[in-house]
Amino acid sequence: MLENEVMGMKVENPLFLAAGILGTTASSMRMVVKNGAGGIVTKSFSIEANDGYENPTIVKIEGGVINSVGLASPGVEAKREELKELTPIRSKTPVVASIYGNTADVFIDVAKKTQDYVDAFELNVSCPHAKCGYGSNIGEDPDLTYEIVKSVKDEIDNVPIIVKLTPNVTDITEIAVASQKAKADGLTLINSVGPGLRIDYKTGRPILNNKFGGIAGPMIKPIALKCVYQTYEKVDIPIMGVGGIKTYKDALEFLYAGASLLQIGTSIMYDGPGIFKTITDDLKNFLVENEYDSIKDIIGLSHRI
């Protein structure tokens, strides 16, 4: 009932681990799968190891968090070894590698080094707190996004390419259409909102070491839903919805808006990895109670009523 095939990936349920939460080591990703995740998106990585920003890198706010990790990663060689360990789970649970770079050549190099161990790539061109030349420095420009995606697609033709977009633009559908023209296989909407700031009321100093960070969690759900809804009407490629999903009702809203797959990240910090099983059980019960035959019946429902 929750099974589907999207971008060539067969999933038992639509809930993927989002990049950035528990996606660093093979053991943590396997643990998430045991708790019911239908798929995995790794933490973003690139060619070289990157220490990211110094702590503190995350702070809670009402309705979510502000984080500024700075794309910390162990580098492609170390990450490849972690991905190899996930081979046994890939027959039932797709593994998507989130990768980043500041040029097309870097994206291509990372993809070529890891393409045998993943089921798709998610191009992170949308991190709002990345250092110069990375993340949203690319994804805010439709022409640059097109060039990056097309270059990767020209070189990597056997693994689906998903583009993760930033909401921090005037019109996200413009970037989405540019990605589709570049032959992207799918889109992830959205990355963090912001950057935002929180200040310690006692000292008057910004709490995060980097001062500013991306805003994530339930408070950004309305923005994410709007982006998914608008983009669904403009493109013909699948959408992975992410941003504040905490319950099956949140998941339903994203599915109705047009997302075929979903990602959960920040909510794990509040409810633990068991959130995957809770939401999938509740989704299945909802479909049965409302006499739907398949989850496919409700994808994009809001556009048909």
From TrEMBL:
Main location: cytoplasm
Entry's cofactor comment: Binds 1 FMN per subunit.
Pfam families in UniProt: DHO_dh (PF01180)
UniProt keyword annotation of Flavoprotein present: yes
EC number: 1.3.-.-
GO annotation, biological process: 'de novo' pyrimidine nucleobase biosynthetic process; 'de novo' UMP biosynthetic process
Single GO cellular component term: cytoplasm
Catalytic machinery residues: 127 (nucleophile)
KW Cell cycle (keyword) present: no
Cellular compartment(s): Cytoplasm
Cofactor(s) demanded: FMN
Enzymatic reactions: (S)-dihydroorotate + A = orotate + AH2
Residues that, per the record, bind substrate: 43, 67-71, 124, 191-192
Keywords attached to this entry: Cytoplasm, Flavoprotein, FMN, Oxidoreductase, Pyrimidine biosynthesis
Gene Ontology molecular-function annotations: dihydroorotate dehydrogenase activity
HAMAP family hit by this protein: DHO_dh_type1
Protein's job: Catalyzes the conversion of dihydroorotate to orotate.
UniProt family annotation: Belongs to the dihydroorotate dehydrogenase family. Type 1 subfamily.
PANTHER family listed in its UniProt record: DIHYDROOROTATE DEHYDROGENASE (FUMARATE) (PTHR48109:SF1), DIHYDROOROTATE DEHYDROGENASE (QUINONE), MITOCHONDRIAL-RELATED (PTHR48109)
Subunit relationships: Heterotetramer of 2 PyrK and 2 PyrD type B subunits.
Protein name: Dihydroorotate dehydrogenase
